[in-house]
Each structure stands twice: as structure tokens, then as C-alpha cells.
Recover the amino acids of this structure.
């Protein structure tokens, strides 16, 4: 029997199409839906019969798991009890979007979905203490998924080994007669599949290349803070050291472990030639506040540092203008460290002047850290 095809171009019929797709999925049927990357075949994840049907249609190795598809980023909390900071960051920045994430789940039995549906869903949803999750950025997919009161998995709408389809004709060429319904949402936005990454304690591993490039992935998973002054020997190094100290304290880790958590703090000088150490007054002033600046080596401000940074904090309005002249489209990620006024340079001053400056910078850094999400 040919697969029924419903077209979303008819706005009056849209709600009925979405409702029918959701009802069929709830009943354990297979439904093809569009996403922003390729068309997928969706199935009810907590139904062994539906999963078996999906494996049969795909011709896929029975041991290879399917990706859970969710209607919105917050839904991931039903399936992953504990999210690392890197995981939270990538969810916040990449979803909804063309990125599938394999999360480590040490104790699947602690997941909310298990308490909702019972322990038997563990073997259906989790694979070797992991779960792959995709949060598509397509209205049809989101609307269908949001109306199904059960977990849903999906795979590209093609036989194993064949190219994934970007339109309804490609779906029917492969799977006509094997699906209860196929929704025609037009040609997909992207020409390739979603990127698949696996998160672990050491960072991430790309399991499948796709729409999201490795460069963008790294940007998603890290946060970079940059402090700017003139010579990078006094004010900005003190801000860098104090910022690292405060973040590490809040994270319950050492300063050296921040990189493992995807957190990087830098400083640079708009007039620096680079290579020199921090001034003795700066080293001593931050030491008295608990931070370490002894290994600092000054560096010059450049476009790469600015472009890499998520937030750029400048000591003076002159430094802010220097940043903007280097990267005119830097936008609002560059700000004065202290809103509305400059931080005076203690260079050549007394130990007390350095202490006052460090204390002022410390308070400003603490305030800025309250305002940003790491």
C-alpha cells in the first residue's frame, strides 16, 4: 500500500497534519518528517515493535542505536540526569540546530523518563551508558515531536548505505509503502546531515561530520574571556588572574583545570610588544587576593584574540576603541570592565596604588561574572 503523503503548504490543513502524524507515532507507526538537514523516519522510542519496524525499514545493524529527537532543548533533562558544564554550554548555543549529541549517562535508571515509563525503557533508549539526542530546528519536526507524549527516535529516511533524502521524492523513492505517513515540508535547508559528537570527560569526539564544522563545534563548547589594557603588564593581567581565581573557586576546581571545562581567560595589550612579565606590583597585589600572576607573559592584542573571545573587557575607553578599530564588527561583546568609567593605570606607582587598582578590578570582575553565563 503506498505511503500517504500530506503537504504542509496548505496552512489551513497544517494543524490536522501535525495532529495526525503525532497520533500515528503514538500508535507505534512510522512517520517521515522533514528537518533542517534531511528527512527522517520517526518512531516511538518506548515501543519495541516500533523500534523493530524502524530497524527493518532502515536495514540497519540491530546493535546500532537511533538518536532520540526532542521538541526543545529543555526536554533533554528528562533523559540526561546530570549535564556537564560543556554539555550545558553546547545545548544553550547549538540547539535547536543541526547537531546530534551523544551524552554520557552513568546511571540511566536515575533519569526522569525512567521514573515516568518504568525501568524497561532503559534498554530501549540507552546504549552502553550513553544516549544520542537531536533537537531539530524545523517547525514541522518541532510541532510533531511536541505533540507526542512519548519519547521519539528518528533516523534518516533512506535504506542503510544510501544517501539521505532532502525532499519528499527522495523519501518515497526509498521507502514508499513502508511508512504510515510522510509529511512533505519542501526541500531541506541544508545539503548535509547533522554533525554527531560524543561528549566525555576529555572533551568531545566527532562521530560523523556534517553541517556544523569542527571550528564552530569548538566555539560552541568553550567560553573565552579577554581583558585588554595598554602594555599587558599591570591591569589586564591582574583582571585575568583574578577572573581565573574567581571562576575556579565557583567551579570547585583548580585554575589549571579550567581548560578541561572549556573555560579560557586571556589578557592582551593594545600597545604591547609582548614577551615581558607582569609588573612586580601587580604580581604582589593579586597574590594578596589569592590569585597567581607569577608566570604571566605579555602579549599583543590582535584580531584573532578578539574574534575568539565571547566577551572582551577593556580597562579604558581608549582600549575599547582600539578593539573596535581592529574588528569593526565586534558588536556588543566588547565593553568597559567598569561600566561608564576607566580603570587608572598603576604603572610606576606605589604598592598601595597597585593594591587599590587590584581591589577595584577584583570587584569589577566579580560583578561581570554575575552577568555572563559560562
Amino acid at each position: 500500500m503506498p505511503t500517504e503523503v500530506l503537504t504542509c503548504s496548505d496552512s489551513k490543513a497544517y494543524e490536522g497534519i501535525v495532529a495526525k502524524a503525532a497520533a500515528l507515532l503514538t500508535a507505534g507507526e512510522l512517520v517521515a518528517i522533514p528537518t533542517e538537514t534531511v528527512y527522517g523516519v520517526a518512531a516511538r522510542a518506548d515501543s519495541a515493535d516500533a523500534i523493530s519496524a524502524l530497524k527493518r525499514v532502515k536495514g540497519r545493524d540491530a546493535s546500532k542505536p537511533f538518536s532520540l529527537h526532542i521538541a526543545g532543548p529543555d526536554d533533554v533533562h528528562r533523559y540526561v540526569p546530570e549535564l556537564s558544564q560543556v554539555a550545558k554550554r553546547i545545548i544553550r548555543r547549538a540547539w535547536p540546530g543541526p547537531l546530534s549529541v551523544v551524552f554520557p549517562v552513568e546511571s540511566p535508571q536515575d533519569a526522569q523518563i525512567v521514573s515516568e515509563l518504568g525501568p524497561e525503557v532503559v534498554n530501549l533508549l540507552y546504549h552502553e551508558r550513553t544516549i544520542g539526542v537531536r533537537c531539530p530546528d524545523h517547525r514541522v519536526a518541532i510541532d510533531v515531536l511536541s505533540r507526542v507524549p512519548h519519547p521519539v527516535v528518528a533516523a534518516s529516511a533512506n535504506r542503510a548505505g544510501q544517501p539521505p533524502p532532502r525532499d519528499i521524492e527522495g523519501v518515497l523513492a526509498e521507502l514508499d509503502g513502508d511508512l504510515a505517513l510522510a509529511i512533505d515540508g519542501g526541500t531541506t535547508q541544508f545539503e548535509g546531515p547533522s554533525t554527531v559528537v560524543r561528549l566525555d570527560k576529555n572533551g568531545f569526539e566527532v562521530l560523523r561530520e556534517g553541517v556544523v564544522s569542527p571550528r564552530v563545534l569548538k566555539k560552541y563548547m568553550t567560553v573565552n574571556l579577554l581583558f585588554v589594557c595598554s602594555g599587558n603588564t599591570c591591569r589586564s593581567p591582574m583582571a585575568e588572574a583574578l577572573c581565573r581565581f574567581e571562576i575556579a573557586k565557583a567551579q570547585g576546581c583548580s585554575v589549571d583545570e579550567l581548560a578541561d571545562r572549556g573555560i579560557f581567560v586571556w589578557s592582551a595589550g593594545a600597545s604591547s610588544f609582548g614577551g615581558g612579565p607582569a609588573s612586580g606590583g601587580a604580581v604582589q597585589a593579586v597574590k594578596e587576593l589569592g590569585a597567581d600572576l607569577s608566570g604571566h607573559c605579555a602579549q599583543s592584542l590582535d584580531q584573532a584574540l578578539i574574534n575568539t573571545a565571547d566577551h572582551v573587557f577593556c580597562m579604558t575607553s581608549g582600549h575599547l576603541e582600539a578593539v573596535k578599530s581592529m574588528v569593526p564588527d565586534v558588536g556588543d561583546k566588547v565593553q568597559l570592565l567598569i561600566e561608564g568609567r576607566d580603570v587608572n593605570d598603576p604603572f610606576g606607582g606605589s604598592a598601595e596604588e597597585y593594591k587599590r587598582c587590584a581591589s577595584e578590578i577584583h570587584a569589577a570582575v566579580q560583578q561581570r561574572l554575575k552577568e555572563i553565563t559560562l
Observations:
- The chain has 13 helices and 14 strands.
- The chain has a mean pLDDT of 96.
